[in-house]
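Kindly inspect this one:
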Amino acid sequence: MVPPEGARAEKRFPAATDKPFLGVPSPARVQGPTVRFLGGVREIGGNKILIEDGPDRVLFDFGPSFSPRREEFYVDYLQPRSSCPAKDLLEFDLLPRVSGLYSKEALGDADLAYAPPEVQAVFVSHAHADHAGYLRLLDPEIPVHVGAGTRTLLDAIATSTSMKYGDHPWKVFQDGKPIRVGRIEVVPFPVDHSIPFAYGFLVRTSEGTLAYTGDFRHHGPRAADTHRFFEAVAKEGVDSLLIEGTRAGPDPRRNLTEEGVRSSVDRVLDGHRELALACTYPRDVDRLTTLHSAAVAAGRELVVSVRTAYLLTQVAPRFPTGVVPVPGRAAGLQVYARRKQRSYLWERPFLETALPAEEVRARGSHYLLALDFAHFPELIDLRPEAGSPFLHSMSEPFSEDDVSDQVMHNWLDHFGLVFHQMHASGHASGPELLELIRATRARAVYPIHTEHPEAFAPAGPSVHSPELGRAYPIARPR
């Protein structure tokens, strides 16, 4: 697959200061506050957005992208060395060459020399890996600002998976309360997304205001949050809008709401008496709640993995009582006991009452089993009846030759399971994006987190397809 345009050219883009951003000094300094895109350009994920205002620098999000660019060098068990991960990623221009950002340990003896922190703060929009997965590479002296719910999610993920985020001065912000970093003021606003506790930001500088959407949708259970954020953006009269565009361009996905997913699940469960299986994103709390309520309505119990049970237990206190089901307290929710050689401390509270494969197989009509894609080998023990429904409540594959999609269907075909697609996307549709851009009336619009920035052209001349590493002024022309 051809990498996104510009993906191989990070070192060629000019920087706006004399500091070694992307390794190139600036031929012409941009006056006043600027925004620089160090990732998320013509690719899904990987947002790394640097705001500079005089001596003050603030970074928004820091994670890997879903671009095939990384897979040209690192795939499966071939990964950067844990002793110097930043060095190994810098070797192939998979990280921006930003001075004063990385830790000594992550750099090792890389050709980018260690420098004390030159970034005053990092803000994380939400806990998805493509926005937070590289936090462990940052200098531990740089404060990381997150919402309280995101902090809970990051802790739960770090405890129950191999994902680690590093040691930082963690700063928990409050909805709508400004945070001052030198000349820069950041105001966080909750938005709706497929993981809870997602945020967009208003960023006020000494000469202009910018809005960064993070990832968001317009049709989920917390759509009102998204509406309020964009109302604030329009009221502010922002100079620059940085908007995600995951679904811009060709988009075969159905634009289901969470209620639409629930209706689809209900129809499938009503028509089957066998064991029903489902696969969804393990941190999509909205979807897990939908599956639970649908299972209970159908006279079944939802059975989840130990990891999912732990996550639900950790995040439930962040919601109103009873909204998020918790194992051991919510009726109709059970935990599945995978066949494993060892267990971790965080797993053990759930294992005593967890259901083995034999129980689930014997009373299949009583359960809706939701396991991760990596847990498919459990099907060998479960041996569901041919014709049993499989609810794929995740995004459709981006292409017909998606390897994981083909592997999944190999398993389903082997056991004779019937595939049902039902998913409410975590991202706004293309038409919704264009409508929101027009409503904000921003002077400059920069599509990011998208492979198709050209799809934003109908929004008008304010749209600019950003270049990787280039600094753009935030202030209005004088």
The CA atoms of residues 239 and 443 lie 5 Å apart. Residues 1-28 have pLDDT under 50 and may be disordered. The chain has two domains: 13-250+426-473, 258-421.
